[in-house]
Design brief:
There is one protein chain. By secondary structure, the protein is mainly α. The chain has a single domain (about 5-65), classed as Winged helix-like DNA-binding domain superfamily/Winged helix DNA-binding domain (Arc Repressor Mutant, subunit A, Orthogonal Bundle), CATH 1.10.10.10. It has helices at about 30-35, 40-50, 55-70, and strands spanning about 10, 20. Helix 1 crosses helix 3 (about 55-70). The protein is globular and about 40 Å long.
């Protein structure tokens, strides 16, 4: 079941040059996704970042899924 990533992910030009990040932190979504790309599983990522909740982790994945479904106008 998808998570409503908009509850957990934000972007503000004054933080991390506007990169999407987990609300209330300076942790970019790309960091979480990078750990997954490197072969870590969800439990390993959450263990690496104890303040990261399962809901925030799921929101990062849902955000990436949402972006991958983007259709450009032709």
């Amino acid at each position: 079941m998808p998570t409503d990533w908009k509850k957990y992910i934000t972007s503000d030009p004054q933080f991390l040059r506007g990169k999407p990040r987990i609300k209330g932190t300076r942790s970019p979504v790309s960091l979480v996704l990078g750990y997954l790309a490197a072969g870590k599983d969800a439990d390993e990522v959450i263990a690496e970042f104890p303040d990261l909740t399962k809901a925030q982790f799921a929101a990062c994945l849902d955000y990436a899924r949402d972006l991958s479904e983007f259709e450009a106008a032709i």
